[in-house]
Amino acid sequence: MKDKQPLVYEREMTITHKEFLRLLPKALAGLSYEKNGNLIEIIDQNRLIKINLSEESIRKIASLELPVTNVRIELNNFQTKDSASFISRFSLAYQKGGG
């Protein structure tokens, strides 16, 4: 029986790698991870989460400069509802306030 295809989420985030890693424990809710270059792997029972970070870049808007990192999240062996729960928690951990 062939393994189910991973669920993949991609997003562009205005964040540096340093800030991403600072917030990652909150997004993972206690799960541990291993980092190898720009790849982060998290094992949760029989599920595997892979997070790939692009190289950092800068977006200029007039005189404003914002850090940009493209993030690819691959969820392996996740049920749809579990993946939605993980992505919701991940998004909340990285949500920036506005006003």
Describe the secondary-structure layout.
Blueprint: E1 7-13, H1 17-28, E2 33-36, E3 39-44, E4 47-53, E5 57-61, E6 64-76, H2 80-94
Antiparallel strand pairs: 1-6, 2-3, 3-4, 4-6, 5-6
Helix pairs in contact: 1-2
Q: Bin the helical content.
A: 25-40%
Report the biggest beta sheet as strand number plus sense, adding barrel if it closes: 6 strands, antiparallel
How many beta-strand segments?
A: 6
Order of helices and strands: EHEEEEEH
Portion in strands: 35-45%
Unreliable runs, pLDDT <50, ≥5 residues? none
CA-to-CA gap between the ends? 51 Å
Q: C-alpha Rg, in Å? A: 15 Å
Mean pLDDT: 92
Question: If you had to describe this structure to a student in words, what would you say it looks like?
Answer:
This protein is an alpha+beta fold and 99 residues long. It has a domain at 31-99. The protein contains two helices and six strands, in the order E-H-E-E-E-E-E-H. Strands 1, 2, 3, 4, 5 and 6 form a six-stranded antiparallel beta sheet that branches. It is elongated. The model has no long low-confidence stretch (mean pLDDT 92).
